[in-house]
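Figure 2 data, in text form.
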Amino acid sequence: MNTKFFKTGLILLLTCITFTVFAQKSETTITIKSVIACQTCVDRIEKDLPYLAKGIKSVKADVATSTIVVTYKSDKTTPNDIRKAITAIGYDADEMKADEAAFKKLPEHCRKEIAEKRDASRKPAAPCPNKGKPGCCKH
């Protein structure tokens, strides 16, 4: 009786380990650059994205780094599908621009801050004040 119980337990344990190993292999994490203005944007992205792309396990948007970190099942979706879903919410995703109609549906304060951040990123950097001097930052 104890031998039968031990064999059943061992088979169950091996089955669980196998499922765990295979499940972990299909999960992938991607970091996507975007322009995120505020906590409202973070909340919107984290809430809406899992509904727009299949297989998303977690979403973490960060205003400070302007990134969206997505963990997803690679057998259910692709990085490009995730980027398209982000643009459908109204935000840029790496080189893909936000869907204009979705962007217009964002709260006004979000649109304004995103536009300001986009403009700031397009401006050329100021010339280096130390150019040619020892310790120059090589701008």
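Caption note: Residues 26-118 form a domain with the Alpha-Beta Plaits fold (CATH 3.30.70.100).
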